[in-house]
Amino acid sequence: MDLQKPITVEEILKRPPFRHARIVAGRRGLKRPVRWVHVLEVSNASAFVNGHELILTTGVGLGDGEDAILRFVQQLVESRVSGLCIELVQRFTEVPACILEYAEKHDFPIIAFPQEVRFIDITQDLQSYIINRHHQQLLALEAISKRFLELTLQPKGTSQILKLLYQKTGCPVWLRDDWGTDILYPENIQRSHFQSHETLCQPIVALDAQVGSLHMIQGGKDPEYMQRLLDRAATAIAQELLRNMSIEERRMRTMQKWIEEWLQQGKAEFPEELVSMLTGGGSLALAAMGSAAHPSTPYESDDAPEDAMMVQIARMIHRAFKPYGLHVWMAPREEQWAVVIADQHPSSPQSMLQRIKRAFSDLFNQWAANTALHRYRWSVGISQSFRHLNKAPHYWKQAILALKVNGPAMAQNRDQRPPERYSLIGYDDLHAWQLFLQVDPEVLSAYVENQIGALLDYDRQNGTELVRTLEAYFATGQSKQRTAKALYIHRQTLYYRLEQISTLLGNNWDTPERRMALDIALATHRFLSMKKNHTAG
Asked: Mean pLDDT across the stretch 223-228?
C-alpha cells in the first residue's frame, strides 16, 4: 500500500464488492481520488456531498425522466464527486444515453452493477479500507515526526530534515525563512519549478509568529497526506529555529555587554575575531541605526517577540555584510542599534565606507520585502574608520551625530520629498555640519541673523525667495545664466532679485571674503532649519 498516493476509483474497483461491476462511462477519470463512500437517493445531491466521494445509488428517489437524472449527475460533477455507482435493477435497466454522453465529456466515471448488490457490504468494505489506510498514514507520520525531531539535535539539522523529506516523498522541497535561510533540496532544482508546478506550502510558526514557509512540489501525491508531512517537518524546523534563537539571544546579551562597556569607556573584553582583524591590518567603523514607522505603510500589529526580532535583524545584517568583506557585531543601545563593523579585506579596491554603504543598501532592500520589517523606515549614521580601540567613544559620537542629521524628520524635509525606506550618511559626508553639530545653537542663530537676517526678514514679510536665489547663485559659481535656469525664472527676474540682495546686504556682498561668510551662513541656516524640523518631528 503506497500511503503517499490517494485512493482512486481505479483502486476501489479492484475490491471484492466490485467484481461484477463494469465501467460504462468516464474511463479517463479513473484516477480521481476517493476520500469516502456515500449512498445517495435524493435529487438535491449537492447538499449532501463535500467532494471526492464515491456515490452509490439505485435511482429510486431521483425522480422520473432523463432530465431529472441528468441534473443529479451534473450536481455530482459540479460538487467534485469522484464517481457514481448505479444498480441497474430497481429504477434502471440501463443508463440513459444522455447521462453516458455527459459523463464521457467530463471524464466522470459511472460504474454499473447489472445485478442487485448490498450497498451495506460495499460501504462497510470501503470505509474499513479507507479508515485502515488513514490509520497506517498516522503511524507513518508518527514515525517520521520522531525522526525529524531526532535530526534537530544533529549538526545542520534543518538541511537533514529537508533531505529526509525528499527521500521519503521524492518531491523537491524549498525552505525560506525571515532570517535569510533559503535552502532547496535537491540542490540542483530550480526555484522556478515551484512557480510552474502544483505546490503545497506550510507556514513555519515560532512563538506564535510566522517566521518562514516550507514548500513542496506535490507530484501527483495525496495532497492531504503530503500536507501533514509538511506540517511535521515545519514543526521540527520551528523547534530548531527556536533553539538556535535561544543560543543567539545568549550570544547577543554577551555582545551587548562588551559593546556597551567599549562605547562608554573605550575598553572591554573583546572577541578574538575583532582583535585578529585589527592585527591583520583591518580597520573598524561604528554605525548608529534608528527606525521609525514608515508613513506610507498602514500600521499592522506585529506579534513577533522583541527578542526574536533582534535575532532576526542580527542574522540578516551579518549575511548582508559578509559578501563585502565586513564582519559585524551589533546590540541595541538606548534608542538605537550600535553596529560594530570590522574590515576583513583592507586591501579591497573599494573604500571601507563605500562597502558599508552598499551592504546597508542590500540589507534594507531585503527588509523592504520582509513581513515584519517592511513597515519601518531606517536611518543610519556611520563614523569614520579607526584602528585604536580606546577611541571608540569618540567615533560612536560621530555615528550618533550623523544619525541625528539623518533622522526621519530631516530626511523628509529635504526638498520636501517623501521619505525613502532608508537613508544613510557617513560622518565624513557632513562637511561643515561636523562643526555645526558641536556649536551652541544660539551662537549659530546669531551668526545667521548677522549675515543674512535682512534677507530672511524680507522673504518672510513679502513672500519672496531671495535666500533661495542667493543659494542657487553661489551653487552655480555666480553664473547668472545657470542660476536663472536652475530657478526656472527669466534672466531679468534674476537681475531684479540680485539688485534687491545687494540693497539689503550692501554693495560688498559679492567680494570673496563676504561671499565665504554668506555661504557659511546659508549652510548654517539650512542646518538649523532641519534641526528644528527634526525636533518638531
From this structure: 90
Which helix H or strand E contains 38, and what residues bound it? strand 36-39
Contact 121, 17 (CB under 8 A): yes
CA angle 198, 5, 137 (to 5 degrees): 115
The alpha-helical segments, DSSP class H, found in 156-197 are 157-169, 193-196
CATH architecture of 270-430: 2-Layer Sandwich (3.30)
Cell 559679492, located at residue: 510
Domains 9-126 and 270-430 share a fold: no
For residues 68-75, give the mean pLDDT. 90
Could you confirm whether domain 9-126 is CATH 3.40.50.980? no
Cβ 355 vs Cβ 341: under 8 Å: no
- Whole-angstrom distance, CA of residue 418 vs CA of residue 405: 17
Q: Which residue has the cell 503530503?
A: 226
Q: Contact, 211 vs 177, CB < 8 A?
A: yes
For the record, the C-alpha cell of 146 comes out as 520522531
17 within 8 A of 125, measured Cβ to Cβ? yes
Domain boundaries, the chain: 9-126, 152-244, 270-430, 441-536
pLDDT tens by residue, 130-163: 999 999 999 999 999 999 999 988 888 899 999 9
Q: What is the largest CA-CA distance in the chain?
A: 118
| H-helix segments, 335-427 | 352-368, 392-405, 408-413
Are the C-beta atoms of 385 and 285 separated by less than 8 Å?
Answer: yes
Helix, strand counts (H, E) of the chain:
18, 14
Please, what CATH class does the domain formed by 152-244 belong to?
alpha beta
Angstrom distances, CA of residue 159 to CA of 94, 183, 311: 58, 8, 20
- Would you say 136 and 3 are in contact if contact means Cβ atoms under 8 Å apart? yes
Query: How far lies 231's CA from each of 3, 139, 197, in Å?
Result: 16, 15, 20
